[in-house]
What does this fold into?
Amino acid sequence: MSTVALTVDGNLADVALDRPGKHNGLTIEMMRELTRVARFIESRKDIRAVILRGNGPSFSSGLDIAGTMSNPLGVARNFVPNPLRGTNSYQEACWAWRRLPQPVIASVHGHCYGGALQLALAADFRFATPDSDFSVMEVKHGLIPDMTGAATLSRLVGLDKALLLTMTADRIDAAHAARIGLITEISDDPIESARQLAERIAERSPHAVAAAKRLFDRTWHVSARRAFGIERATQLPLILRRARFRR
It folds into this structure.
């Protein structure tokens, strides 16, 4: 039985974590499904934007530790990275969404903890209900965030706040999350807010939207000189494409 539900409506993909009775606790199979769905969306050039959300009372309470740790061999096997992609199965479940050319908009309600927060951080935008709460919870279990959070958390909130959230494992509310930049916006209806944004972006050139996402992903951690080179390399195909279609 699938634990990730995909619906394609026109040029919009709706992806829902679907273990509502378990607050969408992440299992190994669920993470594999997330990766498979992301790769399917990547292959669909007609899809212009993606909404990522959770069914039931929460976006997700994070890793289903009891279920996952009952299979230590599976944990070890999925920890090994793919040499071509540079991610293991846990990391790819999040980073596959960052790799998509389409913008990904997370709609968060209820709990968003641990691995689920790292999944939300891999989206390009995050809308959250006023009563949602967030936690980098791994330290409570003697672990660190290792599902790509190291590449996203400090980028959004700064190094000191990233360390503070990680070392304390404190729960924070949506107001705090918005104040430090962890989420994009608070919304009483985050799914509708995500849909409205998706529709606005879908009106723009998909080539320019994909290029913009790629540009900012590739330049945030490099020198200014390197960033300028990436800008030029990203812009040139768009200029040539525009010139070709104006003939």
Observations:
- The chain is about 50% helix and 15% strand.
- The CA atoms of residues 164 and 170 lie 9 Å apart.
